[in-house]
Amino acid sequence: MHSSCQISIRYEDFFMLRSFRLCQTIALTGLLTLWGTSASACTGITIRPADGSVVFARTMEFGIDLRSNVIIVPRGHSFEGTAPGGKPGMQWTSKFGIVGTNAFDEPLIADGLNEKGLHVGLFYFPGFAKYQEVKSTDAERTLAPWELCSYLLGMCGSVDEAVEAANHVLVGEVVMEKMGFVPPLHLVATDSSGESMVFEYVDGKLNVHANPLGVVTNSPPFDWHMTNLRNYINLTPQNSGGLDLAGNKIEALGQGSGMLGLPGDFTPPSRFVRAVAYTQSALPVETAEQGVLQAFHLLNQFDIPKGAATSTENGKEVADYTLWTNVVDLKNLRHYFRTYENSQIRMVDLQQLDFDAKTISTVSMRGDEVIEDLSKTAK
């Protein structure tokens, strides 16, 4: 039913270990002249604690503030998709309640978790995304690229169901009207069993890749990233023992010598390698709560401060930066987040929500950092 990428290296040998975003583009205003290269730096990772839980985490980078919020989509909410030419597409009614992050107040999910423990997230995929051919008679089963995430979350309870569902719909070359172009996207789906798949539309065909490492970034296609890992099989979390050169002991200058050569830039291939290195070398954790905190710590390595990754687009300098970071606990159904403006970790517990509500509700992600003054607590 679904294809897997070919992996030649043995995972148990990789890094000598014990165990093993939107970039959905929903820019909806005149700001959309900034789309060029300013949405290609999202990073996703997976943590698998010893208690059997599964934690997926991702960053969202963009060159402008997407004004994202957390939205709660109840069961029974009706959606209508979009076919090429802006025509009405497939209609569906969500079977499952969803919590996820949107952009610009749109009622669509860029990254979310449903009540069955399925996570789906959109990531930017420029230069390679080419969607399916859609005939006029296919409109009733057609979605726009940015709608697939919401559809899978609303209708599927597992990765296997998501693969089957994706193979029964068409995703067409649909221009997002307020953007003026077709957003190039791929997505990752992960469920509470730990199964993960990457969905990519390349040359008009849906490719589904097994994702055993639980890592995803952006272009090029996922199977290329897996092959590229062969260039880094020398990396290890163990410090180098040094060399004896003609009787001279040559020792490492400090900690981390086993990871010498780990790429540290913000390009998707480098972030993919780095994400695998960090997740595979991280010390095992026992509980989901520890896994959530570990995921936030690991993704600190992928934060992009304003000014570190810039481009000139339409005569203006655009700086990608990390707008927000999401971490989801697929077993305990909790959605955690922090933002560029407020690094405090906040959480929405799906088990406390009313998914029989009549309308979509919103949890604000707004707010500035709160700095606690402890001066008077000194003893």
Automatic annotation (TrEMBL):
EC code(s) of this entry: 3.5.1.24
SUPFAM superfamilies cross-referenced by the UniProt entry: N-terminal nucleophile aminohydrolases (Ntn hydrolases) (SSF56235)
Alphabetical keyword list: Hydrolase
GO MF, one example: choloylglycine hydrolase activity
Any Pfam family matching the protein: CBAH
Residue span(s) of domain Choloylglycine hydrolase/NAAA C-terminal: 42-360
Protein family (similarity comment): Belongs to the peptidase C59 family.
Protein name (Swiss-Prot/TrEMBL): Choloylglycine hydrolase
Annotated source species: Rhodopirellula islandica
Upper lineage: Bacteria, Pseudomonadati, Planctomycetota, Planctomycetia, Pirellulales
